[in-house]
Amino acid sequence: MIDRRTFIAATAATAAAPGVAAPLRSGGAFPEGFLWGAATAAHQVEGNNVNSDCWALEHVTPTVFAEPSGDAANSFQLWPTDLDLVRNMGLNSYRFSLEWARIEPEPGAFSTAMLDHYKAMIEGCRARGLTPMVTFNHFTTPRWFAARGGWTAADSPQLFARYCERAARHLAGSIGYATTLNEPNLAGLLQEVLPPTIGPRLVAVDKAMSEAAARKFDVPLFYAGNGLYAPDPAVVRRNLLAGHAAGRAAIKAVRGDLPVGVSLAMLDEQAAPGGERLRDAARERLYAPWLRAARGDEFVGVQNYERNVWGPAGKLPAPAGAVRNYAGNEVYAGSLAGTVRYAHSVAGVPVIVTEHGVGTDDDRVRAALIPAALAELRKAMAGGVPVKGYVHWSLVDNFEWVFGYKPKFGLHSLDRTTFKRTPKPSVSVYSAIARRNAV
Amino acid sequence: MIDRRTFIAATAATAAAPGVAAPLRSGGAFPEGFLWGAATAAHQVEGNNVNSDCWALEHVTPTVFAEPSGDAANSFQLWPTDLDLVRNMGLNSYRFSLEWARIEPEPGAFSTAMLDHYKAMIEGCRARGLTPMVTFNHFTTPRWFAARGGWTAADSPQLFARYCERAARHLAGSIGYATTLNEPNLAGLLQEVLPPTIGPRLVAVDKAMSEAAARKFDVPLFYAGNGLYAPDPAVVRRNLLAGHAAGRAAIKAVRGDLPVGVSLAMLDEQAAPGGERLRDAARERLYAPWLRAARGDEFVGVQNYERNVWGPAGKLPAPAGAVRNYAGNEVYAGSLAGTVRYAHSVAGVPVIVTEHGVGTDDDRVRAALIPAALAELRKAMAGGVPVKGYVHWSLVDNFEWVFGYKPKFGLHSLDRTTFKRTPKPSVSVYSAIARRNAV
């Protein structure tokens, strides 16, 4: 149970490979109709997601969560405010997720009221000229699903597909782009990519937390949607791959012309001289199976925050003087373009950047990163990579999983008592690019 | 776990005592500022109250519930529609309840977002010229509260008071009238008043359901807010009486001038010649301790649906030709006035009729009952009983506890798929009385 993005970040290289960082230059229009968005995810902003696996784990002893999610940004009630923020930034898209735990609060019992809630959000996007990008499942699963083993259960793909089918029947008509799962590619592999300084401890706490939840709910295994510890990672990966395929088929059966994809967590894996073998191995282990699975999709969602630079003996440290994010890792503007290039080379389908951003208390880092990363992205596009949109993570500071509210990824800050959102200076930077449709 | 109102109804007399039913006459103004309202309760209309004791019990095996509450009337989202209905009827008050399970989702963890939700409802009442009557707890308690023994736990009054204090701090400023508990007077006594034809079976299922929930959540006792089976009824009653006192003190400490009371479930206990002893015994057993407890309050809430007529050997049957409600019991218009007279005679404080109505598929019964009962109520008032308001149960057909959605108490019908509310003909009858402030 951990933020995969942050764990990947924790493993990032700490030195640049020579020649990798192309000089950034400004200017350049994006294609007409390019999607400019901001993203959230249900559990991270809605608040009071009491029927989810994650809420349950936040409240067992021991827990690996720094703090509980609580009210989050109260977006379950304040979603019209969120949509107004997106519109007022001059963006034309909003990425958010449906909460499975709300829509199917008990096995096979679907809530029309909650489907209506998400329908209102989707129509609220349309009313504001925003294309809704809807993630059907962003990590959290219903507590009952986790209590029967979650994604370790043999029938988990079918249960996910049943949920997708019901949600699609109610909602698909107005969705712009759908993704089945968020960052499923790292499930079961987090143990491998954790740095040795913190990995064993966190995996141990995660395992103890999962066991405490199993006792609390009197079940053999309580396995949450984004568990860090996995009894058998290969089983989880197999079921998630099958879940994507079955969920996609269920959605397409309802509305065949709706573009459906999957969003993958990807670092820009780079090779310093002699590091090609390790780089390729990392790509194959972490991304390639999912990118190949995406070949049948209308697009692949790429979510990138950092890079890894591989030397012959392993990851290299960041260059001296590198700008750092909240976790101490390098902020590298070219990583997005590099990742998008690689993703497209394997998947062979158009790319949507469904997440990109930086966790930092210093918004100047974000304000500098956005134009620099977009300039590089445009170069990749000029080089032939079809990219349909860019969605910044996140609209507002939110609940960053095991790290609680400390990491700040938001374009807006959040007052956790009044729920007031305040734009950071980077909003005007990103807004100007989106309005001009050019960087 | 049962609808106390309905169980009381199930025990109602089936024959009238001579001379009890005074002839009804029309006409007569009510005092200026008289409160005309309609009532709901959170679990019965909000929907998806997944963190409550009741939801948990609806989903264990065995369960005594005919069906789960599910989306109910989706009033958690559609409360503005509900308030509009009340206003459009020409009423000046709305009675609803706060959901403890939402406001305190984990022990000691209070949700500002959910308090904001109820604050918006209270302010929504004021914006429509409606005086908000707020029940702090209408039967359902948080699942965590039930899982630690509910009202059997020695510290339950203090836990309730802590919740009342936090809710009052956020909400008390705009509340018109507050009640601590809904119908606590019957807790632990339902076993006694159940008719022998159904009582033992329901109590047995209720007990088995409670035990199944205890196993599911791995606790010694799962005791819900309106449990039918009680390990020790005297303990539950003692804690509820202490809970009312502590909750009231907590609310008054926040806002001393806010009227605070408790709503009691009361039948009009009548005596045929020779039945006085049994009538008095029933009154003492079921109501008197709570009416005496209400002596320190600003008002007592009376909730009446039917009467009992006692003969020397027990309850008498209803008179031949009596109009019957959905449960087959007599509909008797004079019962409200009789109950109000008795309640005031013991409590010595003003009365608010916080519930009155009839469960029936035939709205003509409701349309006839309302003016007839109000004419009798006005006579009681003319005789010196201070009554400050009348609140009809219910605004809309809803989840009637163990009986599910079958009993229809609403002034409006409910489409359970679209959540559309449609006024029944009785709306115009009640509305005309409220607008004229005269019956």
UniProtKB/TrEMBL annotation, chains A, B:
InterPro entries, alphabetized: GH, Glyco_hydro_1, TAT_signal
Gene Ontology molecular-function annotations: beta-glucosidase activity
Keyword tags: Glycosidase, Hydrolase
Residues that span the membrane, as ranges: none
Residues annotated as signal peptide: none
GO biological process: carbohydrate catabolic process
Family: Belongs to the glycosyl hydrolase 1 family.
Official protein name in the record: Glycoside hydrolase family 1 protein
